[in-house]
Structure prediction request, 349 residues.
Amino acid sequence: MKAGLVYDPIYLEHDTGSHPENSQRLVAIMSHLEKTGTKEKLTCLPPHPASIEELEMVHAPEYISQIKSRAADGGGWLDADTVMCPKSYEVALYAVGGGLTGVEAVMKGEVDSVVALVRPPGHHALSNRAMGFCIFNNVAIAAKYALANFNLSRVLIVDFDVHHGNGTQNTFYADSKVLYFSTHEYPFYPGTGGVNETGIGEGEGATVNFPMTAGWGDEEYLRAFNEVLVPVARRFQPQLILVSAGFDPHWADSIAMMQVSVTGFAQMVAILKKLAIELCQGHLVFTLEGGYNPQVAASAVRATFDVLLDSPEIIDPLGKSSARKPGGFEEHIEKIKRIHHLSKGNSKF
Prediction:
């Protein structure tokens, strides 16, 4: 299998200082890919900056102008969590463009799958508002771009970041062409993503939220993927799968309280890869979202590539969490199955 890597050093120029979402995340990931020999197995895909027209597929023109002007004025805080420097507007264009480059590469058959190592992240960004470290919604624009340019009518977005992707959900909440599936710690920032948020109008049923109780880990995530994501994806029949890949549900990431391991992430990626092969000719694009422990992010991205490259072994230097798990999962998953009209049976591969 041929895997692509979207990366450019310009992503390091979004200078956030000592903010958790800082350039050292990518420095650690890229260094690890090089040291382990993983990078040399990949097809490197240089990103291009997104155009204003591409941004406007999701974002309001006045918001785009506001971000451009803010950068020209030296940057600053957009909200309590999200900061810009003078280069952030340009870097954000390349972050969006990185997702578009990934879509182009898989849809044109240049590679089977892509991981876009971009920043700033995107899944919290709303049409007219920055949120949660995010400026433009990279994955939402990628989905709109794919629908508009490759004669597609169904795109699946899977979001396993520890925070709910409220911006992505909001973009497609009334849209039947995009199925949005999210696992996320709940209740937690940004407060959205309850089980009863399922879409409106033509989009009713095309939003599938699987909120997770703090303390759940690999077993619960894999059951959510196998027993909910797999059957809803098969029912939807996507022509492309996009992934908001946040590695902050890891047990060693201090931003949240989930207990996923690097091995768990690899197993989730394996499910996504199998779904893509079964349903959409392998078309699969990952875009980096969160993940603030550099060792975790580096190990998880390497493990992701190892799965995509059919490597026989997954390296997990941190191992599994030994924390005690809270209960209530069985009742929770059955409620979600009922909401989305799924049978009680397990639909895993």
Observations:
- Residues 106 and 112 are 6 Å apart (CA to CA).
